[in-house]
Amino acid sequence: xxxxxxxxxxxxxxxxxxxxxxxxxxxxxxxxxxxxxxxxxxxxxxxxxxxxxxxxxxxxxxxxxxxxxxxxxxxxxxxxxxxxxxxxxxxxxxxxxxxxxxxxxxxxxxxxxxxxxxxxxxxxxxxxxxxxxxxxxxxxxxxxxxxxxxxxxxxxxxxxxx
Length: 162
What we know:
Distance between the termini: 21 Å
Low-confidence stretches: none
Number of strands: 0
Radius of gyration: 21 Å
Order of helices and strands: HHHHHH
Number of domains: 1
Strand content: under 5%
């Protein structure tokens, strides 16, 4: 059955790789927290490379960092970035920007009106989510590593097959 569901099979394979990481729980938790922090930043498209680079520099678990980045994915990213932007805008006391129909030099200024609150919000939520993910991962990894996940069922051979 698993062979027919390619997406489910890939998810299970990635979960197995993560579960079978042979590292101390705190090393895995640090990698996940790093990945979650970078995943919350507005660097969509480059997050995994940035997370692995910083995991390499900080000597943290690279696979755990790469997996932590997936907190933002095409489904969750619009909601996360909107929340970060609104929070940053409120903290900075900024009003919502108005969009003009014509492209002119004000567009550069509008970029900063969008980018500054987004970056502030991403640092705030990144630190919060990284701390939470570190604590949760640190507590869950010992029990998760003890799980035994069976192999995929082998296809049955019908008596008529040669």
